[in-house]
Design a protein that fits this description.
The complex is a heterodimer of chains A (about 350) and B (about 325).
Chain A lengths: L5 E12 L2 E13 L4 E5 L6 H8 L8 E3 L3 E4 L2 E2 L5 H7 L4 E4 L13 H12 L4 H14 L5 H4 L9 H13 L5 E5 L7 H18 L2 E6 L2 H7 L2 E6 L2 E7 H6 L4 H9 L39 H5 L5 E2 L7 E2 L25 H17 L1
Parallel strand pairs in A: 3-9, 3-10, 7-8, 8-9
Antiparallel strand pairs in A: 1-2, 1-4, 1-5, 5-6, 10-11, 11-13, 12-13
Helix pairs in contact in A: 3-4, 3-6, 4-6
Chain B lengths: L1 H28 L4 H10 L3 H11 L5 H13 L13 H36 L4 H15 L2 H15 L15 H35 L2 H7 L5 H23 L1 H14 L5 H10 L3 H29 L7
Helix pairs in contact in B: 1-13, 2-3, 5-6, 5-8, 5-11, 6-8, 7-8, 7-11, 8-10, 8-11, 9-10, 10-13, 11-12, 12-13
The chains are: A alpha/beta (about 350), B mainly alpha (about 325).
Keywords (chain B): Cell membrane, Membrane, Transmembrane, Transmembrane helix, Transport
Family (chain B): Belongs to the binding-protein-dependent transport system permease family.
Membrane topology (chain B): Multi-pass membrane protein
Chain lengths: ~350, ~325
Amino acid sequence: MSAPLLQITDFHLGFRTRRGTVQAVDGVDLVVNEGETVGLVGESGCGKSATVRSILRLLPDKVARYGPGEIRLNDRNVLDLPEAEMRRIQGGDVAMVFQDPMTSLNPVMTVGDQITEYLAAHTDLDRAAMRARVIELLSMVGIPVPEERMTWFPHQLSGGMRQRVMIAMALSCEPRLLLADEITTALDVTLQAQILDLLHALSERLNTATLLITHDLSVVAGMTRRVYVMYAGQIIEEAETDALFAAPAMPYTWGLLRSAPSLDAPLTEDLTPIEGLPPDLAAPPPGCRFASRCPYRREICQSRMPDLRAAPDGGTHRVRCWGAQDVPEGGWLIGTDWREDTGDPRIVADIRAASAMAGTES
Amino acid sequence: MSRYLWRRLLTALVVLFLVSVITFLIVFVLPGDTAAAVLGEDGGLDPEAYEALRERLGLNKPLAVRYFDWISGVLTGDLGVSLRTKEEIGPALLRRAGPTFQLAFMAMLIAIIIAVPVGVAAAVHHNTWVDAASTVFALGGIAIPGFWLGIMLILVFAVWLRWLPPSGYVPLWEDPVQSIRLMLMPAVALATALFGVTIRQVRTSVLEVLGEDYIITARSKGITERRVIYRHALRNALLPVVTVIGLQMGHTLAGAATVEVVFSLPGLGRLAVDSIFFRDFTMLQAVMLLFATIVLTANLVTDLIYARLDPRIRYD
C-alpha cells in the first residue's frame, strides 16, 4: 500500500512566550488517506488549529517552534521543504477554509480578484480562462449571478455567501486535501447545515480529502469516517466515527457528548458542562492531562501519563486513558455507561472548588 | 456621493468665513499700526499726514464696516493693494504660488517615497534592529527643524561638494532640470518632518493589518510574502496613512515659510513672513485666507481619495 496522503507522526509544536515555551502540540499522530474525510475534535486551545496550520506552515515564524516530529504530505516532510516548494503546496495541493468568513476575506479586493489570485499562483490559465473559471467556481458553490457577484467586495455579501466564496477559493485549484478550520462556528445554525452539505457534496465530487476541525461532535457525526479527539496538545481518542458514537471510551469524550445539545433528548434535560480548566501547557502535569477535570480519576491518573492504546472494543479504536485500557492498575471504566454514571460526586465537588479557587486568584 | 460633497463644501465655506473674520481681527491684535507702518519712522511723526492716511485707508471707519468692505472685495476678486509694494494682491499671490506648490508637492512626494518602504520594513521586522533604526530615523525627522537642516544641506551639498546650487528659483516650465535641482534641497528639508510622522503611521498601521485574518488567508494561497505584504497588507494599511498625509498639509505650508526664507524662494510662505515684518496687513490677510483654502481643499481631496481606496465607504 502506498503512503497516505497526509501522515503526521509524533508531531510537536512549541510557542515561545515570555513565560517559556508552551507545548501547544505534544506528540500527535494523525493520518488522512486520499479522498477521506476525517474529523479533529476538541475545545478551544487544545492545539487542533495549531496542528492544522502547521501543515501549511502558517504560524508566525518568530514564535512557532516546529518539531520534533514529521508532517508528511505525499511522503514529503513539509517541515523540511524550502519556501518555494511550500508555496506550491499552499493553495495548490492543500487548501484551507477558515473559521470566520467575515474577517478572512480581504475587504478592499473583489471576491473575483481574490479567487483569481489562487489561479494565477497555481495554474497557467490566461485572463479570459481565469475569469471563466472564477464564474464556474462561484456557481459551483451556489452563488447566483456569479458574473456580477465576482465584482463585489466582501462587505456586500452575507456571512453564508462569504463562506461559500471561501470554499470556492479553496477548491479553485482542485486541492487533494482541504483543511476546514471551524468553518461553521461563525455562522447561524440554519446556515451551518447548508455549508456542511455543500462541502460534503463538493469533496465527494472532486474526490478531495478533508480534515474537518471542530469543537462540535455533531458536525463530525454526519460528515466523517474517522475522528480524532484532541485535548491539551494530545490525541486522547481516535476511532471510526460510528464506533466513537457507539462506544466512546473515555471521560473527556463523554464530557464533550454530554455538553452538546441533542435533538433526541427531552427538552427538560440540562446540558452538563465539563468542569474546570485545561492545564497550563507551559508546565503540563506529569500524569494524564485531563485528570484535573476528570470525575472518574484515580491515583495513577495524576502520577503517570497513559499512552494511546487499543480501546476495549478493539479495531482501530484507540484511547489515552488508564480507566479505559485493559492494563494492570487500569481498566476500571471498561463497561461504564457514561449516560448513567457521571462519576464520583466528591471528585466533582473537588474540581468545582479547585476551579473556583483558580478563578479568584486570577 | 454628491450630497456628501455638497455638505462638505458647505462646511468648508463656514470654516473659510470664520478664518476670514479671524485673519481680519488679527490685524488689530498685532502691535503696530498700518498707517504708521506705511509712513515709516519719520512720517509717523507728522500727525497731520498720519490722520490723512488713516482717513484714506478707511482705518477710521467702524470694524464691521471695514470687514464688510474687505470681504466684499475678496468675493468679487479684488484683494486690494499691497501696502508695502503697492502692487495688486491677486496677481502677486498667483506669482508666488508656483514655488510653494512645487516645494510642497516635491516634499510630499519625497516623504511618501521614503516613508512607505521604511514603515513597511519596520512593521515586517518589528522588534528588531530594523525597527529600532527606523524609529530613530523617524524621530530624527520629526525633531530636526527644517530650517536648520536646510542650512546644513546648503553647507554640505552646495558649499563643500558643489553638487547643487545653494539657492534660487527657476519656474518648472522655463528650465525643468534646473528647477528641480534648485528645489531638491528645500524639498528634502521640508520632507523630514512629514516622513517622520508618516513612517510611524505606516508602521503602526501595517503592524495592525498583519494580524488580520485575511493575511493568513493570503498566506495560505501560495503567493509570495512580498505579494502578501504589498498587495494585501499595504493596500489596507494605507487607508489611515492617506488621512495623516492630508492632515499634514497645514504643517507643510507652515514649514514652507521657514524653508523658503532659508533658500531664498519667492513663495507664499516667505511672502507671509515678509508681510508680517513690514506690517503689510492687506497682503497678510489675503495670504492667510489662501492658506486656509488650500488646507481645506487638501482635506476634502483626502477624504475623496479615501473613499476611492476603501470600497466599504459610501458617502451619502
